[in-house]
Amino acid sequence: MAVKRKARIPQEKCASCGSCLEVCPRGAISIFHGCYAQVDTSLCVGCGLCSMECPAGIIQVEVIS
Q1: Spatial distance between the Cα atoms of 1 and 51, rounded to a whole number of angstroms
Q2: CATH says 4-64 is which class?
Q3: What digits encode the pLDDT tens for the residues 25-37?
Q4: Other C-beta atoms within 10 Å of 46: how many?
Q5: Which of 16, 44, 64, 65 could hold 28 in an S-S bridge, CB 3.0 to 4.6 Å?
Q6: DSSP of 6-22, one letter per residue?
């Protein structure tokens, strides 16, 4: 069985800089009302590019069940 991974962005720590949006190959991240980034989990493939790009280092890629 394949392991599923998804990005998680804690909204209270996000500076909404948009760096993650630019690197997401699936377009799974958007900025919610100019306040914080949010992940569309139906599009996210858990590649981790957003996590590597985040200047604040707050994006986590987690294994989901």
Answers
A1: 24
A2: alpha beta
A3: 999 999 999 999 9
A4: 19
A5: 44
A6: EEE--TTT-----HHHH
